[in-house]
Amino acid sequence: MSIFGAIKHAIFGDKGPLGGQFSGHKNTAQTTSGHAQTTGAAPTQPAPAQSQAPAQAQAPAQAVDVEQVLTGIAQQKGNPNLNWRSSIVDLMKLLDIDSSLDNRKELATELGYSGAKDGSAEMNIWLHKAVMRELEKNGGTVPAGLKD
């Protein structure tokens, strides 16, 4: 799996925005802001198998609130002292992904970074913003402050 694929999987889960399951983070994400988020998950009372499949196939995609999911993960981990809102290294650490320079170089290559892949602040800032933009392209809702 690519580095970006691992980041996306850690946030969206196996099924992504269409499935409504966020790798065990669904409940945390729903309660972070104090109100339920529509995730497209099945109701608590299961519907008969015949009617459930067509409804899922026709259900519109639900955007994943990336900031809310990441905040929920941080809360679940006891709010570690990580600046995931602006640091690619801390974002990767929050998601339990190896944040080594080699992995960040690979991520830079995946996302099309054209500068020196030396772990500079410039590269790391670009990576964080590029990851947030890519998450948005893949069905996430990302506040402007995390992309710009």
From TrEMBL:
SUPFAM superfamilies: RPA2825-like (SSF158634). It comes from the Bacteria. InterPro entries: DUF3597. Residues 36-61 have a biased composition (Low complexity). This is 3-oxoacyl-ACP reductase-like protein. It comes from Sphingomonas aerophila. Residues 18-61 are annotated as: Disordered. Residues 24-35 have a biased composition (Polar residues). Residues 3-143 form the DUF3597 domain. Pfam families: DUF3597 (PF12200).
